[in-house]
């Protein structure tokens, strides 16, 4: 026999009169205030609007709201009743079965139990909620109690529509009408057990930002400030209004004040229903009492307050109006705290005089749960006791469950100043249409989100300082190690190593922001769950706020390394290099944000970030060329975020067919002959020239920048080559000279420009063009371009030039190679131009040339950077789903 049962049998059912009197007085005060209490909107009007109407003074009033002063307020409570009937929620759990039991055969003659419908040998059904019914009225606090795992939080989540409707059975109604999820998001609020707040914002700023989100644009700035100030007074946070929230590294408000701030940001729009998941958890008795006292004020303003609580103290018990005890998902008691002693006395276990009522009830429930019969007897007794209680009550004294329809109740609530989030009191519309989905337009949300994020980030300079320090140190090390690389075989290898390490560094340094993103994730989920703002506005505002810091980091890294390493392109090349670094930072930042949306903790997040970035570097093309990656891994190559900036900087550095990196005797540098005397190398070159019938000297260019790109497997993006310029030139005499020794790749584009400055007409046609005549000459009076894409090895073009005083035509062979360096046939000799050509030397100096590697018409860098930005944006967007 248990200790509690034995003590009950000895002590009987008497209770302490002093305890009963205190609780009775508290209950009478709570019930009296429920029918003569103001709404939050009216309280705010009293402390601000009324004074403005009388004196014209709009200065906010800071004073504690006096809840007892209700003479000017209507004496009728808002008629809202939230009812829930037969709520049942179950999940499938894995059966605990030892391995031999699976293989063991049942003994002969022994019947085996058949699994319940929906179950099998390996799973069973566990009921988290089992036929739970009850109701909650405005002006009251309903407390859900029970041991850990009893279903308290599950019931709160079910009522708040945080459980999938397909899994939840039963009905939830407001004033007898089914509760629409869109309507519930606007007229209710959910306060989580954890205080999810921005640590570097003050209490006043936190509530003000909440007001900017939840209150409509039609409400003036001064009205919003007055509402925030009145709420600070109501929450008892006046002394902490200018104090930051704080975190582990920054001292801020106390735990009880943090909890009240969490409540405040969710009631800023004066909701009709307020759900709270263990709001007193982790608080001392004084702080817990103050929190529940605030909840009583909120309930008295015309709201329904439903909260789960683990073990209320004596003082908190006097503030509760209804109690719902749960045990393993079933109701064991539902009713007023005043009836609790009578209930357990009738059950045969009267509450001792010296015991706290709730503590005794919870201890008894735990002991029954550990007994063989469980709490089945208590559940059945509760049903019988409820039926007996209802049959003994006078039907004439019962309060009607539903007075007004939901439309009428919402309209009356709006008329009295409640539900201020842009609602309309048009009773002819549906309840869901009486409240907007979002209180503010998209651009207002972006401005407020950007301001809040910037304010919080500005007050945490150490995070940016750590990232900047890492970038500066890494850049300095790279600059000193790869100082002024030359155009040699060794210089090429060192450039490749520098680019691979530099691009991977931009991604690794973004991992430092993972804790911040994890912190913001839960705040984002809480705020968007009840339509505080749109997901898209958060995404764009986050990008806007992070962009200045990323620009500064990118510029610092690019400025330290570009000229120190000796990269090509001058100032224009530096701008492209900077753009690639910036795009890499943006993609890395978004990638870390994406991971923060799917990992549960910081440690696991760091592990995954480091591992995935290592894979990205492995498949970037630095360690192994794309054409040598096995087909079953090629998908990871295109998924690698390091691939795109790596290829972009290679394009920016080596995309110049005229720049030579390996000349003559440098052929032997990376071979065993690299240390032999130069004279011997020259004799070897002479022997090779005689053997190959190709003249190769010590100054002959063997490998150009374009060859290096081919060796690295970077051949999938096209290059634009300009033929012609704005001054006009004779194509028949200059183009053949320019094409000598030029190599093109499949996909490259020849752009023929036309100019009217010198009355020049030119035409370019494919191989099937048989001659040049006036019918095929493009009119030179109109400027324009004619583009031809080199689609296959061996493409040939006829180019005809036509001046007013001469005719010229020739057949050109464009040497087009594929990715393997294979061309089609030997170039055909170009015939001499027909007729003489005369033009000035100044015009001759503008011979056709390829597009410089830093020109805007070369789209390699632009495409790679655009791909990075798009990937980063997609990563960030997917993290918000």
Automatic annotation (TrEMBL):
The keyword Metal-binding applies. Residues 822-842 are annotated as: Disordered. It holds the Pfam family Cu_bind_like. The chain crosses the membrane at residues 464-485, 497-518, 539-565, 571-592, 604-624, 859-880. Keywords: ATP-binding, Glycoprotein, Membrane, Metal-binding, Nucleotide-binding, Transmembrane, Transmembrane helix, Transport. GO terms for cellular component: membrane. It is found in: Membrane. GO terms for molecular function: ABC-type transporter activity; ATP binding; ATP hydrolysis activity; electron transfer activity; metal ion binding. It is a multi-pass membrane protein. Residues 823-842 have a biased composition (Low complexity). Residues 719-818 form the Phytocyanin domain. Coiled coil: none annotated. The keyword Lyase does not apply. Residues 110-353 form the ABC transporter domain. PANTHER family: ABC TRANSPORTER G FAMILY MEMBER 28, ABC TRANSPORTER G FAMILY MEMBER 6-LIKE. This is ABC transporter domain-containing protein.
């Amino acid at each position: 026999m248990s200790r509690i049962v034995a003590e009950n049998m000895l002590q009987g059912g008497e209770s302490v009169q002093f305890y009963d009197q205190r609780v009775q007085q508290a209950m009478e005060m709570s019930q009296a205030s429920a029918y003569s209490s103001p709404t939050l909107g009216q309280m705010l009007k009293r402390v601000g609007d009324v004074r403005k109407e009388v004196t014209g003074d709009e200065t906010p009033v800071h004073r504690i709201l006096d809840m007892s002063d209700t003479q000017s307020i209507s004496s009728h409570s808002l008629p809202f009743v939230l009812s829930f009937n037969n709520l049942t929620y179950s999940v499938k759990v894995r059966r605990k079965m030892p391995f031999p039991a699976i293989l063991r055969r049942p003994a002969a003659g022994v019947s085996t139990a058949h699994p319940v419908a929906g179950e099998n040998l390996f799973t069973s059904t566990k009921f988290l909620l089992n036929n739970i019914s009850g109701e909650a009225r405005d002006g009251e606090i309903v407390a859900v109690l029970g041991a850990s795992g009893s279903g308290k939080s599950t019931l709160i989540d079910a009522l708040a529509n945080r459980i999938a409707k397909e899994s939840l059975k039963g009905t939830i109604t407001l004033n007898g009408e089914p509760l629409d999820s869109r309507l519930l998001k606007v007229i209710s609020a959910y306060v989580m057990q954890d205080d999810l707040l921005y640590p570097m914002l003050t209490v006043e700023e936190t509530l003000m930002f909440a007001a900017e989100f939840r209150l409509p644009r039609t409400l003036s700035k001064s009205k919003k400030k007055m509402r925030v100030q009145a709420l600070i007074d109501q929450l008892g946070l006046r002394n902490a209004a200018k104090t930051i929230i704080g975190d582990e590294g920054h001292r801020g408000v106390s735990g009880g004040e943090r909890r009240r701030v969490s409540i405040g940001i969710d009631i800023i729009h004066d909701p009709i229903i307020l759900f709270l998941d263990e709001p007193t958890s982790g608080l001392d008795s004084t702080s817990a009492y103050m929190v529940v006292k605030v909840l009583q004020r909120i309930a008295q303003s015309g709201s329904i307050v439903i909260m789960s609580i683990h073990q209320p103290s004596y003082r908190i018990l006097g503030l509760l109006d209804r109690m719902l005890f749960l045990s393993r998902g079933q109701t064991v008691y539902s009713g007023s705290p005043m009836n609790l002693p009578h209930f357990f006395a009738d059950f045969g276990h009267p509450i001792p005089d010296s015991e706290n009522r709730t503590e005794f009830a919870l201890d008894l429930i735990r002991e029954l749960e550990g007994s063989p019969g469980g709490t089945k007897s208590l559940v059945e007794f509760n049903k019988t006791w409820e039926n007996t209680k209802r049959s003994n009550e006078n039907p004439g004294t019962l309060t009607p469950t539903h007075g007004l329809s939901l439309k009428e109740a919402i309209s009356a609530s709006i008329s009295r100043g409640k539900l201020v989030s842009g609602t309309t009191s048009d009773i002819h519309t549906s309840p869901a249409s009486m409240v907007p989905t979002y209180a503010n337009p998209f651009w207002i949300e972006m401005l407020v989100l950007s301001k809040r994020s910037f304010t919080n980030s500005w007050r945490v300079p150490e995070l940016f300082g750590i990232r900047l320090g890492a970038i500066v140190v890494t850049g300095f090390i790279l600059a000193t190690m790869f100082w002024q690389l030359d155009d040699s075989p060794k210089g090429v290898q060192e450039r490749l190593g520098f680019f691979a390490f530099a691009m991977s560094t931009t991604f690794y340094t973004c991992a430092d922001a993972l804790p911040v993103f994890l912190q913001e994730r839960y705040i984002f989920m809480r705020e968007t769950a009840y339509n505080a703002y749109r997901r898209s506005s958060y995404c764009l505002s986050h990008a806007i706020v992070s962009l200045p810091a990323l620009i500064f980091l990118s510029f610092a890294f690019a400025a330290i390394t570009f000229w120190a390493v000796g990269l090509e392109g001058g100032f224009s090349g530096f701008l492209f290099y900077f753009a690639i670094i910036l795009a890499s930072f943006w993609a890395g930042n978004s990638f870390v944000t994406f991971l923060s949306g799917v990992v549960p903790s910081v440690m696991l997040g760091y592990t995954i970030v480091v591992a995935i970035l290592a894979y990205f570097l492995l498949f970037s093309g630095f360690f192994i060329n794309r054409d040598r990656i096995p087909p079953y891994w090629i998908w990871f190559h295109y998924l690698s975020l390091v691939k795109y900036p790596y290829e972009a900087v290679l394009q920016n550095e080596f995309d110049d067919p005229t720049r030579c990196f390996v000349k003559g005797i440098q052929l032997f540098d990376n071979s065993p002959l690299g240390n032999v005397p130069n004279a011997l190398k020259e004799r070897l070159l002479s022997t090779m020239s005689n053997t190959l019938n190709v003249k190769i000297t010590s100054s002959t260019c063997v490998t150009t920048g374009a060859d290096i790109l081919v060796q690295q497997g970077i051949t999938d993006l096209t290059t634009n080559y300009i033929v012609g310029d704005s001054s006009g030139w004779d194509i028949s005499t200059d183009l053949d000279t320019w094409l000598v020794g030029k190599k093109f790749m499949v996909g490259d584009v020849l752009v023929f420009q036309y100019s009217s400055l010198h009355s020049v007409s030119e035409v370019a046609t494919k191989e099937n063009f048989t001659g040049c005549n006036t019918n095929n000459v493009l009119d030179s009076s109109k400027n324009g371009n004619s583009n031809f894409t080199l689609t296959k090895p061996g493409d040939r073009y006829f180019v005809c030039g036509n001046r007013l005083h001469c005719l010229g035509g020739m057949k050109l062979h464009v040497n087009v190679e594929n990715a393997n360096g294979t061309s089609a046939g030997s170039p055909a000799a170009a015939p001499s131009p027909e007729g003489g050509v005369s033009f000035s030397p100044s015009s001759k100096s503008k011979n056709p040339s390829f597009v410089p590697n830093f020109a805007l018409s070369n789209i390699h860098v632009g495409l790679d950077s655009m791909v990075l930005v798009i990937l980063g944006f997609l990563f960030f967007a997917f993290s918000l789903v």
